[in-house]
Amino acid sequence: MARTILPFGPQHPVLPEPLHLKLTIEDEIVVEALPTLGYVHRGLEKLCEVRDFNQMVQIVERVCGICSCLHALCYCEGIEQIMGVEVPRRAKYLRTIWGELHRVHSHLLWLGLFADAFGFESLFMQFWRVRERIMDIMEATCGNRVVVSVNVVGGVRRDLSPEQCQWIEQQLIISEKEIRQLQTTILNDYTVKKRCCGKGVLTKEQAYQLGAVGPMLRGSGWAQDARQTGYAAFGELGFEPIVEYDGDSYARCAVRFRETLQSFDIVRLAIARMPAGETAANVEGANEDDTPRIISGNRGGIMQSYNRDKHHSITAAPPPDLDIPAGSLAAKVKGKPDGEAVTRVEQPRGELMYYLKGVGSKNMDRVRIRTPTFANIPPLLAILPGCELADVPVIVLSIDPCISCTER
Amino acid sequence: MLDTLVFVTVLLPFLVAAVLLVLREQNVRKVILVATAGVLALASLAMLRGGAFIMSPAPLYDTLITLGDFVILFVVLFVGIKRKNQIIIWLSVAQIIGLIILDFFMVKEHGNIPAFFADDLSLVMVLIISIVGSLIAVYGIGYMKEHEEHLHLTKSKQPQFFFFIVLFLGAMNGLVLANNLLWMYFFWECTTLCSFMLIGHDDTEIARKNAERALWMNVLGGTAFLFGIILLQKVVGTLSLQEILARGPEFAVAGGAILVPMFLLVFAGMTKAAQAPFQSWLTGAMVAPTPVSALLHSSTMVKAGVYIIVRLAPVYAGTYFSNFVALFGAFVFLATACLAAGQSNGKKILAYSTISNLALIIACAGINTPAAITAAILLILFHAISKALMFLCVGAIEQKIGSRDIEDMRGLFAVMPRTALVAIIGIMTMMLPPFGMLMAKWMAIESAHGQFLLMIMLALGSGVTVLFWCRWAGLMLGTPVAKAKPEAQDITVRAPLYILAGLALVVSFFSPVVYNSLVAPVVKMYYKAAPYALPYGNFDSPVGIFLVYPLFLLLGLGFYFALKQARKVTAAQCSQPYMCGEQQTVDGKPGFLGPLGLHVPVQSGNYYLEQFFGETMLSKWINVIALAVLVIMLFGGAL
Amino acid sequence: MFNMTKNVVANLFAKSSTRLYPFAVRGHFEGFRGTLHINIDECIFCRTCQIKCPSQCIAVDNKAGTWTCEAMSCVYCGVCVDVCPTSCLSMSKEHRQVATEKQTMAYQGVPKKKKKEAAE
Amino acid sequence: MLETIPLSLDEVVAVAKEHFDGGWRLVTMTAVDVGEAGFEIFYHYDKDLVMKHYRLSIPKETVVPSISPVYFAALLVENESRDQFGICFSDIVLDFGGHLYLEAEVRAMPFCKVSVAQKQS
Amino acid sequence: MLGNLINQGRIKSPWVVHFDCGSCNGCDIEVLACLTPIYDIERFGILNIGNPKHADVLLVTGTVNHRNKHVLKNIYDQMPGPKAVIAIGACGCSGGVFREAYNVVGGVDKVIPVDVYVPGCPARPEAIIDGVVAALEKVKTLLGMTA
Amino acid sequence: MITKIILAILALVAAPLLGALITGVDRRITAWLQSRYGPPILQPIYDVLKLLGKEPMVTNTWQALCAYVYIVGAALSVVLLFTGSDLLLIFFVLTVGAVFLVMGALASPSPYSQIGGQRELLQMLAYEPLLILVFAAIAMVTGSFKVSAVFEQTRPLLYDLPLMYIVLGYALTIKLRKSPFDISASAHAHQELVRGVYTEYSGPFLAMIEIAHWYEVILVLGLCALFWSTSVVGMVVLVAVTYLAEIIVDNVTARLTWRFMLKSAVGMGLVLTLVNMLWLYAQ
Ligand code: SF4
Ligand code: SF4
Ligand code: SF4
Ligand code: SF4
Ligand code: SF4
Ligand code: SF4
Ligand code: SF4
Ligand code: SF4
Description:
The complex is a heterohexamer of chains A (about 400), B (about 650), C (about 120), D (about 120), E (about 150) and F (about 280). Chain D is of the alpha/beta class and about 120 residues long. Chain D is about 25% helix and about 30% strand.
């Protein structure tokens, strides 16, 4: 039987990120898949030795632009654990809101890419169109569309005004309506199901044994989600994971689609229950010699009022003029972390784990990041052989690969 | 003059063959072969100029033929006994008995029937046999020399080889010129024997096995042939082909009784043409040296099978039987094209494609309209040329690269540019307009219009045909080298290649002339109508039009223009293939940098679509269906 | 398929969602961390920003009174703005313009020996 | 503070096997350079969101038995540790030989403290 | 005449190939966002063509590292001229926040010539559009089309 | 004769321009369907002009030849259509181009173009029989394979062959490589094959292929027009509606696999054809 060997990646239009798979195919059936990694490896864990533990927040945010917020969250929770800082409740809620908004944008992004993987361009366009609303929320509330940079050790850098909360809720209502319009297509369309159902099946046992996480795990019938551990405000909000049972690409897609809608509810609930108060705690540590640090959303007179006339985008209602409370966000970071911690949060792609070790200097001794895709690659290698070449993009995308966090 | 020509085309090969059998001297053999080839070619051309004729040789020959019949049958019987093959034994015994009954009890007026008769159809066949066949024989000189070197034979078996080859040429000429069906039967059996001997030539285990299979299938056909003529004698009272044809229309009206002998003869033709369910002997025959495959198993002997079917077409025209023949042909055309698509063995592809094309011819005979018969005759002609060319190419390639697998022919252009180009020309003439094969296929499809089932099968079949030819042609070009060094080749190998390639192009170009002078008269003779008018040399009928010269002109110009553009591309503009950014050439082999930092040379394979075209799975079904159609064909009249 | 047909046909008849940038510009939202500016007159060359910048792209020379920032290395995190004790750093909400050359923002201020003198 | 269970070199595979059979998921492994004392390798297991951390302390240049035959998923992290710390694992199911991420031109074992010291000096 | 037309075509049809050269995805998704309805760079005739052999503009996001530097070079070499390179984001411009990481070589210009730098972390879609427009302006000047 | 020559020249010159415009409109409408603004209508022409000005680059000189033969085949088939020639002949000439396109793809060692070539062959395998069936059905009604015979009909073929029109539409989706059958080469690149058959053609050679594609669009729409041969308005409406339907289908389906394509094309083609034939006999 004649075989074709295909270099799949690193530069390949269906791969959003560089990854190389040497695929051996026979009549377009994959018989072997061998990966090469390292095209995105930067070695940023090592940067903790030349950046102080506060600066590392900005670095870990850039492990991956898509879940930047959650990387920072996981890292900050770890440091706070080591230093024994109690984060104000309002900050916890804000972290939850931004974290879930991240999940929404990431899932929408993924749903689009997934649609593109099976050649459904207009569906891709529609999901990304909706996603722009979420990006607008990010930009309006955090100051950047992607790398939001709101989490810091001790709390968050920005606050949400009541008007902003209201505006976010409006946006969510519109987005949700638009997403629901696409629901039948992504979950029930004949051609879509033809391309997803039964592709890349990961059985329940395999999922656990190979260490799958996130939608990959939940798509195979395990109700396990790190949000159940109650980080940020989840302890108060309560949480039930979403599960599908078929273990195929379709199930993973369904999990993500339903999680998107679930996240809307979480955001709404969090906004409704958000307590008033501080958004950042003073961080006290063993050593008292550090300079006070001011955490604030914006300062001074650089802000011009928002120009409504120019705002003619998809936004139904223009955002209110910003009235970000200033000054109340001051927090002081004193001291240096000394000790070890392991923290976990649920990223869009699954469970993220940080191992942090400080030895009482301003630089961390070790920052170890176990990202979800890192855990999902072994299952991927297990489910690729035997599929059709045309299904390779679908299956690879179905784990929602994030190579930049895998390799860091 | 006529005597001489018939003598030269039929008897001379027998004599030359005898000489070659005893001759051990290489060079003399070469001279004799080339000379015979030349003489045969000239004689066939001369015969063509002479036109239709009828001839009766001396009565002595009749006796010789009868004797020859028995000799062959006993040889076959002997083989059967030696190989302990029950089928062969019983079939040959049956034939011996049948022949005795026919020769001594039924046929009274021995010698009254003219032995030979030729119309344009026969003459076209003679032309093919004498020119294409001779070219293949010449090719055999260079080929066999190398072949035996590869096999490290201590004692050359070439005398035997050429004995059968040349003998076969004579037999074939005899077969197509024969008027007396008894004579035809003799030549028919001759070709069976030659084929058997030549398939087994290399004397390997598999060769012996395949030869045996070919023998029993062909002997089965021979038996059908014999009993066909016995019945014919009974029903019609004559064995003169010419007379039967002349009285064709009246049988057609009468129907019934004539159809059983017709069935037997057509059945014989189908076994000889290796139609399903007997296709396995032909694919098995590919173990023989390539000249054998080219000569016997593609361009000539198997054509004897379709020749008899086309020959008799006017007799069964307009009957239900004819429709079934068409259906059968169309089905086998489609089925074997699918089988060919599932193969990577070059000769097997050729074998299946041969069967497929023969089936198309049979389908045309079955459609049995003037246009369809025209298509059939043109297909016989063009197919012979192109297919012989393809076989010779594969032979030459196999000797050079040591494989007949098309996967191994990837980038052949870099190794043997000339042969690769010739092979590509061969492939183009097989499947693209404006070449003859395609034109004939066009006629076939258009003549089938109105019969939807036929159309569907022809449509699907021609789609599949393009699939396997096109990828073969394409992959031979796949080479990173811009300019390749021409390969060395024996002149006796190269000349036939070039001549055949030239013929394929030129004869296609002159297809209107061929049609006018060779095909139209026969068709008119039997069907009282010419299917096509030729305004400006274009085939025109109410059903459709095929532009020969404009297409040649425009496509030719286009091709020339394209070639000119392609020449402008310099080696400097050649870049490495797209490999997702990991391209890397090591030792001139393109590839990519794979996992673990290792160079992975490119490797690609065609799709053989096991799922759809798997040989074992498909063959089973095809055989069952083909057999069913045959049975219905036989008993259909009773229903 | 039909669901999607409804969607695309609706799109066909609705106005496209495209913002015709750069012909029609929707301004960035208030609070966007855009281009970094310095009011060099206010700067006291305390080097806080240099120390705190996660990208290490600011260089302050308190003797020469220069403040430079490698514009192409800045990650627009806003940390320097947050930490500057005199609030002389600010970020406008326009994104930094593209360039065909790498750029460095270099400012020459008056080194402040004593705060009083500078104030005058 | 992180609660860890000490682990010795010859228990590594047995413990892994035990957890595999007990339905535990391997979350990951973490290698830490503890200077003179060598390396610490953490094995993090998880079952129903409860984590167990095993701490294996080894001197440098120790060959650690790979648990990838038990947990296929360990292959990436073991290869990664090989890349970054130069810790050798025996019997990894797919061994990238220290080139999972790194090309030859990058210093070997970039995560080891010694080499950092060398770089800074 | 034809030359003029071809130059017109060059300006109006820049096909891009996007190579993620070790980006954190922040810039990647912004490049992708450019294709989507809100920004729709196809308005400028820009197609994300995916194949360097068809592309006129190479968009590079991310830091060059030791493993992907030859890939970047290979892709650049496979693009037929005339071609342009746009480095996107702090990482593409200079190596960004990761400049000091051990596996990072630096910005794109360490390996191939860069025509336009698009700063930002990530670069906004608007900035990316600006970048392509700037690259076209540069091409125009090179072709002498401004005159 | 003179009219034929004029028609032929018209076909050679006007067809590609019209094809380019239609492709431009196609892209614009596709954009609208996706709620985008879309490129200028003349975009395809800009693209080709630009490609013509690119540095020629091949992996193998044969590719250049193949690209040019492809365009010759496509152009010639349009000429034949316009001059009222034989439908089957048109089809065979079209095959010449297609075969050379595939040969060129197979001539490059790149696995992407190899697979693209193989898939293109499978696409041909899927649409060729369908087209022949449609032509045969037309011949059933008109009694001839000649295009000119179609125009002698007094009532539109669509009345007699409604299902065959669907078969034709199916074949055209495959031939024009539109979703769900953009299998061998997608119009854009986001496909596992990075443009498949086109992968290794670049610069001027890709321009040739683009122009050939314009010819093919015209050919394909011309074939559709045959189904309403009795009035020009009818033709235009039919063609416009068909093409719009193609674009919409392109936008509401996921790409399917070639296995599905082969099975469905053959199965559906045969069933629809048989039903239509029965309907024809019943009449
Ligand atoms: S986002 Fe989709 S279209 Fe774009 S490169 Fe990735 S797979 Fe291709
Ligand atoms: S999981 Fe992916 S998206 Fe999330 S932080 Fe990691 S790399 Fe980023
Ligand atoms: S998984 Fe991909 S998108 Fe997500 S953070 Fe990692 S690199 Fe970014
Ligand atoms: S922190 Fe502010 S005052 Fe100090 S050096 Fe920087 S810009 Fe100047
Ligand atoms: S914005 Fe951030 S990266 Fe930029 S100069 Fe300020 S601190 Fe440095
Ligand atoms: S984004 Fe810019 S300033 Fe920030 S770290 Fe990167 S290069 Fe430096
Ligand atoms: S510039 Fe910023 S967003 Fe872009 S790749 Fe680099 S770190 Fe990510
Ligand atoms: S048209 Fe669709 S499938 Fe093709 S490249 Fe664009 S998004 Fe991808």
